[in-house]
Amino acid sequence: MNLFEIPLQALLSQVVLGLVNGSFYAVLSLGLAVIFGLLNVINFAHAAMFMLGAVLAWMGLNYWGLSYWVMLLVAPLAVGLLGVLIERLLLRRLYQLDHLYGMLLTLGLTLLLEGALRSVYGVSGLSYEVPESLLGATDLGFMILPNYRAWVVLASLLMCFFTWFVIEKTRIGAYLRAGTENPKLVEAFGINVPLMITLTYAFGVALAAFAGVLAAPVMQVSPLMGQNLITVVFAVVVIGGMGSILGSILTGLALGVIEGLAKVIYPEASSTVVFLVMVLVLLVRPAGLFGKEK
What we know:
Blueprint: H1 8-39, H2 46-63, H3 68-89, H4 99-121, E1 137-139, E2 144-146, H5 147-169, H6 171-181, H7 183-188, H8 193-215, H9 225-240, H10 245-265, H11 273-284
Antiparallel strand pairs: 1-2
């Protein structure tokens, strides 16, 4: 279809819907970028942590009567604590080895978590209702936007800004970056570098769980719900630049919009347009759009 033949209303609608998907991409890729950029770990368990956040939100509501708003805080904290155990008991032993070992370990953890939950809940999917305070929709003139999807975009942008600000603009972020580049020097100033590394991994997986809770009312909650997203999210991280915080945020949002527009212009390519962009970027700039050339 010719771009100029598409009604403006349809294009604007797809841009807004693309921002919703891009918000999930941004938060998930942000967690990956934080972990890789500061710990040099390719965290394949990210998909499982995203799924675990959604499953915990569902369990909180159906087993313990905890509301969406409570689980938006509790689920990331619980997954963050799991991240502390994973980093201290498993990943810490692999930092001096090749990246491949960390990747295989986190991939194995993903298969274990998905298999365990699949044996309990199956793969058909569980429904999670939109919180009552976010029911309804807003008329934007060119489309009717569900209030919950608007909240997803807002919450994701706020979390992305908070993470970028802490890592790039605060003393804590400076300590984190310095601790990964020269840990012995930073420890000489009395800073507990191993603890900072543990908390960094915990925060990265907590971001994935936060995205999972946001996704629970939008997607079917399932042990396999992270598998479709994670390949796109890794592509986002590669395009933005491995370890680039700002690159992950901007690229995630932009690719969500591009993917949305592709569904109107050429629907057959909508599922592959992200990977086409990745190939083109790598041909021109192998380090990614915001990555540092070595």
